[in-house]
Write a structure and sequence with these properties.
Number of strands: 5
Number of helices: 6
Structural class: alpha/beta
CATH topology: 2-enoyl-CoA Hydratase, Chain A, domain 1
CATH architecture: Alpha-Beta Complex
Shape: globular
Helix content: 40-55%
Number of domains: 1
Mean pLDDT: 88
Order of helices and strands: HEHEHEEHHEH
Strand content: 15-25%
CATH class: Alpha Beta
Distance between the termini: 33 Å
CATH superfamily: 2-enoyl-CoA Hydratase, Chain A, domain 1
């Protein structure tokens, strides 16, 4: 879950990517925010999102990989802001649970609406990829998104 420690670590990863002008890859697995931390936990959503906006301003690629589960504050912030968003097959994704959503919107929800496959079918993901081929797919996306000015070793793409 995302609290002040996780938020700070994610923020530092983003800042390092900005400083070195290298692509950022974040692999997320979270059941939510650490509500016992109160506002400090909620602030991490804004903090990480603001830093990712700077990354976008610098045209530095960000690939977000969603594992099972990726929900709540993490999903509502940095996990859903990637230039490319990849999820594992059958991953549970979303902000709130089905009961809360159903009570809020007052409608029946489609089966599997919080699965990675449903998200991809509805345009919220770029790819659903198993871990066996994840590295290969990330490399392909990086080659598409990133043209380094010889400032990173070419073996990064091997």
């Amino acid at each position: 879950s995302m609290g002040s420690v996780v938020g700070e670590r994610v923020a530092r990863a983003i800042e390092r990517s900005l400083d070195k002008k290298i692509p950022l890859i974040i692999i997320s697995a979270s059941g939510g925010a650490r509500m016992q931390e109160g506002i400090l936990s909620l602030m991490q959503m804004a903090k990480t999102s603001a830093l990712l906006a700077k990354l976008d301003d610098e045209n530095i690629p960000y690939i977000s990989v969603l594992t099972n589960p990726t929900t709540a504050g993490v999903m509502a912030s940095y996990a859903s802001l990637g230039d490319i968003i990849i999820a594992e097959p059958k991953a549970l994704l979303g902000f709130a649970g089905p009961r809360v959503i159903q009570q809020t919107i007052g409608q029946e929800l489609p089966p599997g609406f919080q699965s990675s496959e449903f998200f991809q079918e509805h345009g919220f993901l770029d790819a659903v990829v198993s871990r066996k081929v994840l590295k290969k797919n990330i490399v392909l996306f990086l080659r598409y998104l990133y043209r380094p000015a010889d400032n990173i070793p070419s073996k990064m793409f091997d």
